[in-house]
Design brief:
Radius of gyration: 14 Å
Distance between the termini: 42 Å
Structural class: alpha+beta
Strand order of the largest sheet: 4-3-2-1-5
Helix content: 25-40%
Shape: flat
Largest sheet: 5 strands, mixed
Length: 90
């Protein structure tokens, strides 16, 4: 089964996560099929906290990939943020 999940990177006490499409049987930080974004939970200032390629994620979901619970939440947050930015600009 193919899953969309987080792969941890960054230094000790300073996490940074890549959002990847991977085979469920692979290790968390192991081989993956495609990287579709990143999540920086400790971003501050002008640093980007969340960057997702929503088009590619939707294509993978259409092919049967299952997003993890945290990735589902991040997609929802990303869509709400994009909607509020679009509303603010108009």
């Amino acid at each position: 089964m193919v899953v969309i999940r987080l792969s941890r990177g960054g230094a000790k006490k300073r996490p940074f996560y890549h959002v990847v499409v991977a085979d469920k049987r692979r290790a968390r930080n192991g081989r993956f099929i495609e990287q579709v974004g990143y999540f920086n939970p400790i971003a501050s200032g002008k640093d980007v906290r969340l960057n997702l390629n929503v088009e590619r994620i939707q294509q993978w979901i259409a092919k049967g990939a299952q997003p993890s619970d945290r990735v589902k939440h991040l997609i929802k947050v990303h869509q709400e943020t994009a909607a509020s930015v679009a509303t603010d600009q108009s």
